[in-house]
Amino acid sequence: xxxxxxxxxxxxxxxxxxxxxxxxxxxxxxxxxxxxxxxxxxxxxxxxxxxxxxxxxxxxxxxxxxxxxxxxxxxxxxxxxxxxxxxxxxxxxxxxxxxxxxxxxxxxxxxxxxxxxxxxxxxxxxxxxxxxxxxxxxxxxxxxxxxxxxxxxxxxxxxxxxxxxxxxxxxxxxxxxxxxxxxxxxxxx
Length: 189
What we know:
The structure is a single chain. The chain has helices at 12-20, 29-42, 47-60, 66-69, 74-80, 90-110, 113-118, 141-152, 160-169, 181-188; strands at residues 126-127, 173-174. By secondary structure, the protein is mostly helical. It has a single domain (6-188), classed as Hypothetical protein, domain 2 (Endonuclease III, domain 1). α2 packs antiparallel against α6 and α2 (29-42) packs across α9. It is globular and about 50 Å long.
């Protein structure tokens, strides 16, 4: 029998996300922006809700191309507030646009969003050994530092818990349960 993280067994969409994407180290700026946005949008909601809206988010936010999203204006914000396919929360929408602008600044300074973000884990994933996903913390010293530094740069909707979930999602932290078939695969990748 294949063992997978217990959180990933709630729906076929969660299982597919877990099996093919969650925890795989990513250095792609577009993908990092997408997951930063989705983790921020998830605050107060279930991850399943966000996964169900993910394709709508990609459409609404120009496939997370930061230069395009950075040009969104107030009229676009008002339009997005009417889009039932995404979370219609003004703060979360405006933070995505703001964060796209901050990403462009980071890219100018560091060369890429990836180079900037991966420095918080010294360029390589932190490999934990949790028996259950419930053992994993909601934040870490790495996520607290990342959150503090991103806030200093003007990023929003980026608290330590959101940063930790982001780090798990993009493989900065391997938090697959040790019995999960993905634990070794991700660790070896």
